[in-house]
Structure formats: structure tokens, C-alpha cells
Amino acid sequence: MQSVPQPILDLIGRANVRTVALSPRGNAWHMVSDEHSAVLRCSTQTLGHVVWLHQFLHRLAASGFPSPVPLPILGGSSIVAREGQVWETLSFLPGRAMRLDDDVPLESAGALLARFHGASLAVSSSVQRPGALPMEACRPRSHPQIAEDFLRELADLGHQRVSRCVVHGDCTVANILVDERAKSPAR
Question: Is the distance from CB of 77 to CB of 96 less than 8 angstroms?
Fold first, then answer.
């Protein structure tokens, strides 16, 4: 498991910073100091992707949706690139992974996802996330005629003129936090 490199901890510049691994892969830590409870993450994404994500999270949090907020505690920024790695800091959201908990109705997770998409629709920009896979590059490639027909049908429906939102591409019960007191998805 990777530990937090000292130069990254030096950027934080806080005395009494404690880090606890959140991931067995060693790329995310719960970082607690006198001033902050944060998530420090060594991202597997490109710098452009993380910048886009932080801009989106700022807008999402401002909408009132319970989401992490980028924290500018890495030398005054929430993102820093060092030695080919992208590091980021976000506010820590308490709770536990929903998993398959009989006390939490699965339908409530669907309601939370619908709220996310509604909030995303209100705050999304028209700029596609850097690194997103264009449809024509998806594998396996569809038969060329099927792909051509699909793209034509999208154009006929006015697909380019409709509102866009960010789709949560990995909304599983492992990625939904449950508020212990309310026994319902919180984030």
C-alpha cells in the first residue's frame, strides 16, 4: 500500500495531520487535522479530468446536493500534480457504504440518484469531461451501418440541442453513503 509522500504532506503544512487509508489500493486517505476532515486522493485520472470534476463538484455543492467539496489545502489549491501523479483534496462526507442493508430500502438509492441527475442537469456545462470516451471509439464497435443509423436517429431527434447532465457512471450500493441516524442514503 502506498503511503502519502512527505512532499504532499508538506504542501498541507498542518501540524498533527493524521491519515487513515480508505482504500486497500493505497490511493485515498481520510486526513484529519485540527482544521479539516478531508479526503486526500492520488487520482488515477488526468489533471484535466480532475480540474473538470472539481469545477463540477463546486457547482453541485452550491446547488444544495450533498456532495464533497474541493478543499484548497494543498499549498492553496485542491489539486496538485507532482512527479506524474495528480493529488486532490475534498471534504470528507461521513457515513458508511450502503451495501445490501435490509434496513435501507433500495428504492431510496434510486431516489438519491434521481436527485443527483436533477441537480446535475441544473449545474452542468456543455463542456464534455476530458478523457471521456467518444461514442465512435467504444469497443466492441457496432456494425458500421448500425452505428451510422444510430447517429442519424440522434441527429433527427435533435440530440445536440437538448440539455445535458452528468451521468453517474458507477452508482452502486458500494458508492452510496448511508447516514447512520436516518438509515437512508445521504450522499
Answer: no
Domain 6-93 matching CATH 1.25.10.10: the answer reads no
Residue 42's nearest CA partner among 26, 65, 66 is 26
* DSSP of 96-134: EE--S-TTS-HHHHHHHHHHHHHHHHHH--SSPPTTPPP
E strands of 10-59, at which residues?
18-21, 28-32, 37-43
Residue-wise pLDDT for 114-149, tens only, equals 999 999 999 987 788 888 877 666 655 667 888 788
Rounded Cα distance between 60 and 121, Å, is: 10
Q: Which amino acid is residue 33, in one-letter code?
A: S
Domain with CATH 3.30.200.20 in the chain: 6-93
For the sheet with 184-185, list strands across it: 96-97, 177-179, 184-185
Tell me the pLDDT tens digit for each residue of 28-79: 999 998 888 999 999 888 999 999 999 999 999 999 999 999 999 999 999 9
